[in-house]
Structure formats: structure tokens, C-alpha cells
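Sorry, explain these C-alpha cells?

***
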Amino acid sequence: MSQTLAFAAHAADQPLAPFTFERRQPRPDDVAIEILYCGVCHSDLHFARDDWGMSRYPVVPGHEIVGRVTAVGDEVGKFQVGDLVGVGCMVDSCRHCQPCRDGVEQFCLEGFTMTYGSDDRHDGSLTQGGYSDSIVVSEHFVLRMPEGIDLASAAPILCAGITTYSPLRHYGVKAGHKVGVIGMGGLGHMGVKLAKALGAEVTVFTRTEAKVEEARRHGADHVVISGDPEQMEAVAETFDFMLDTVPVQHDLNPYLAALKYDGTHILVGLLDPIEPAIEGFNLVFKRRVLAGSLIGGVPETQELLDLCAEQGITCDVEMIDIQDINTAFERMQKGDVRYRFVIDMQSLKKTDAA
């Protein structure tokens, strides 16, 4: 076992604080990684505050991890010491069910093992995430950082990026398609960039005029103010796909009405019950589809990293020290970040062990 320094949540109503715990020594198929950068996802905040009623404490958040390999197990064949790598939202799955065999481990029939807050499938210990100086992960769930990619801004690609890319890829978005992106936050701005990279014509739907220029700066071809009935009426039955990144309850009916027949509305942000109710008319009379999507599998995530490196696609980030994580959580709660915080984990060295 090795001593690991981290920041952890110890209770739902307490701020994150320094924490030390033991990481396992690498198993035969494991890769040990020194963490260089870790993105801050809204899921980290939800988990730290037990918003979903499933947190166990203490918990070390963080599932947008970029680092350098420091050791490998005897059976590891894809990585060697010194390699730059990434770890996303998963660190294990059953590996034998149909979804796992298909490379969509996020839909593992036995449930995938989360990077933090899950029971390890082998020893039962609680997984702990990337707000720490190191992590040990099976090589199957380790991603190769392609040459030339900016490491700090690549960290959120492992969650925000793949969450938006996976449904675009799955539903075959390509040149000639019209894609609406609902919301312009951490997920939304990546959705715009990736839909454009796939050749689509992209329209951002936002509630505020303040986001219009931002949306265009990120590559949006058009911007619609969703609270303006005239603008919404003007785009009725226009889109092939809606990528809905909004994480709170909102009315889906106006966006469904903006889809062509056979159009697809994809939820990637909302986990709560849909309110207000969906009007069946909006689905039935145009054969529209309401769908959902969850992160992405290992092969797809590697594909995305390679695409981002080739096309120079990055996530817009604000760098912080780990000591500022509680302030970052407060700002994130208020929507005061453009568009993702990333922790420089070297700052952890300035923290006394606890």
C-alpha cells in the first residue's frame, strides 16, 4: 500500500479538507499514475454534498484525470513508465457482458465501477478519485494522451467531452445535419465544438442574450433565445438532433417542436423527473425520439481524445489550486465558471498531510 495525499469530503455539510489514505500496490494489470491535472465536474459537487443520496464518506472526488505513469503491473502491455495518460469516470466493469464486449462499459449489466464512490470489484474497498496525488487503475480503463494535446484542457474531455461526443457519434451526426445544443455551460460549449467537428450546422439555444456572442465564438452558426416565442416559432420543425445539456428541470416541449419528423432529442444533463410533462403529440405526430446518453465507453473516449488532438479541439478551462476547491464549488453552484475548473495537482504539495 502507498500513502496518498488528497482533498476529501467528510460529510455533506462540510467543506473538502486534506486527507490521507492508502492506495493499493499495482495488481498485474494495473497502471500507477501520478496525477498532474484533474477537472472539476458538477458531479463532484453533487457527490460531495450527497445530493443523490448515495455518497459514503470520506470521499475523494475527481474523474477527469490526466497524469504520468509511474509503475505498471507484470501483465500490462499498452503502457510504460513515463507515458502520459488519462482516466475518466470508470475504473472497472464486469468485462464479459454484451455492453462490455461492445466497448460501451458505461452500460455494463452489472454496473460499472465509478472512479470514486464505488466498491472495488476485487477487494471491496471504496474507490477514491482524482483530487489526489496518485491513482492506480486497470490498464483497460486507462486512456493514452495523444501527442500534442494540451494536458490541462484535455482533462474535462474525459467527462464533459465524451458525454457530448458519445451521443453525437452514436446517432451518426454528420455534414448536412442540423444540431441544436441546449445550454451553454461545460457540456454545451463542448457539444458545439464537437458537433461542428463532425460537420453539422449548429444552433445554440440559450435563455440570455449575454450568451449569444460566446456561442458564436465557440463556433455556433446560429443562436436562438429560447424564451422568445417568435424565435422559437421561426425554427419549428428545423432540426435533426437536439443535444440537451441542461441539468435542471425544464420544458422539453418547445424543443421537441423544433425537431423535424424522425428528429431525436438527447438528454445528457437531466437526471431528475421530467417536468412539465411531455405532450405526447410532440412525439407521436412526428415520430420523434426522446433519448438519453451516459458518458462513453473506453474505445470511444480514446477516439475522442485522438480527434481533439488532430483538430486542436480543447475545453475552455480556468486553472485553480486544490486549496481553492471549496470556493470553486461555490462558484460552480452559481454558474460562475467559463467553462470548467481544472486543478493543477502540483498545488497539493503545498498541503500538509491530514
Notes: The chain is about 25% helix and 25% strand. The chain has a mean pLDDT of 96.
